[in-house]
Amino acid sequence: MHCLVTGGAGFIGSHVVKSLLERKYRVRVLALPSEPRNRLEGLDVEIMDGDLTNPEDLDRALPGIDAVFHLAAVHAQWMPDFRPMYRVNVEGTRILLEKCKEHGIKRIVYTSTQNVIGWNPRGLSDENTPFKEFKKSSHYTKSKYLAEQEVWKFIQENDSPEIVILNPSGPFGPGDTGPTGKVVQDFLRQKVPFYFYGYFNVIDVDDLSEGQILALEKGKPGERYILAGHDVSLHEFFQLLEKVSGVKAPSLRMPRFLVYGIGYLMEKTSDWFTHRPPKMTVDRVRQRGRKKLLDNSKIRNLGLEIRPIEDTLQRTVEFHRKYLAERESGK
């Protein structure tokens, strides 16, 4: 089988590419011309320059392809202008779906986000928990919700391609230089001064990529699967990082209302003065500052095994220590 991976040069996408190659799939990656390719170095993969929102680029990328993994998205908590995010995440998804049908693609694995899974304050949130937070969500969450609605609409109106939807939680592991990776880097440099009450879900990026393959091979068309690992409190997360790294975890617990205020001030500072992404946003505090627990039984029933969180964080710390050392040495 010949697979196209949009976003295959990124953190998650490159791990999906490696998992596909290990199983002897042929792989083509669609990447922006300006996108770094270092994560794909040495891999037997075809890389095609292209823009998800350009139908002509998709016409060049899709011939000969049997299945598509759609991971490409703009993921940011803050931007000076959010319109490009909606253009890629929503419009780009719609264009890709139409082109996949036109080119006779057999199967699509679409990567959404757990952000658009509703919150069940009385227990586990599963694939059917209704999402009622659109108005107060970040632009990223809104864009991914609207994109997923495009997918559901396409499923209802078309018999093919077959589509499986994945809703992953926060991936950790080697290679992450994005927002989650920077949290670990700040921790190792002792730049995390406090924590606050809240929970989030950690999944190993290799478990996430394994879940992508299972969705391709065993997922039921027209179904969504929460692709999640371990629910942990922020306090537990930092304690685990201390355990595997030897770096002291923050001991100061900040009231949530103060953290909301800090997030608000950081956002406004970015809007009005620095024009650079803030370290904290109101939506990030809202997402983290509650006990949202995820039910991953549906994807586990396909055969996904979740590795211990300590193993994931150990590999993550080892990568970031090496990464920071190389940056400091100028390599």
Report on this model:
The strands form three sheets. The protein has a seven-stranded parallel sheet, sandwiched between helices. The chain has a three-stranded mixed sheet with strand order 8-9-11. Helix 3 links the parallel strand 4 (67-70) and strand 5 (107-111). The protein has a domain at 2-173 and 203-229 and 293-307: Rossmann fold (3-Layer(aba) Sandwich). Helix 1 packs across helix 6 (205-218) and helix 7 (234-245) packs across helix 11. It has helices spanning 11-22, 55-61, 83-102, 139-157, 179-188, 205-218, 234-245, 256-274, 282-288, 297-300, 309-329, and strands spanning 2-6, 26-31, 46-49, 67-70, 107-111, 124-125, 162-168, 170-172, 199-204, 224-227, 230-233, 293-294. The chain is globular and about 55 Å long. By secondary structure, it is α/β, with parallel strands linked by helices.
Topology:
Layout: E1 2-6, H1 11-22, E2 26-31, E3 46-49, H2 55-61, E4 67-70, H3 83-102, E5 107-111, E6 124-125, H4 139-157, E7 162-168, E8 170-172, H5 179-188, E9 199-204, H6 205-218, E10 224-227, E11 230-233, H7 234-245, H8 256-274, H9 282-288, E12 293-294, H10 297-300, H11 309-329
Parallel strand pairs: 1-2, 1-4, 2-3, 4-5, 5-7, 6-12, 7-10, 8-9
Antiparallel strand pairs: 9-11
Helix pairs in contact: 1-6, 3-4, 5-11, 7-11, 8-9
The CATH class name of one domain reads Alpha Beta
Low-confidence spans: none
What name is given to the CATH topology of one domain? Rossmann fold
> What is the CATH superfamily label of one domain?
NAD(P)-binding Rossmann-like Domain
Compressed to H and E, one letter per element, the order equals EHEEHEHEEHEEHEHEEHHHEHH
Cα distance spanning the termini: 38 Å
- Give the strand tally: 12
Strand content: 15-25%
Q: Can you name the CATH architecture of one domain?
A: 3-Layer(aba) Sandwich
Rg is 19 Å
Which percent bin holds the helix content? Answer: 40-55%
General shape:
globular
**What's the total helix number?**
11
Q: Largest beta sheet: what is the strand line-up?
A: 3-2-1-4-5-7-10
Query: By helix and strand content, what is the structural category?
Result: alpha/beta
Mean pLDDT: 96
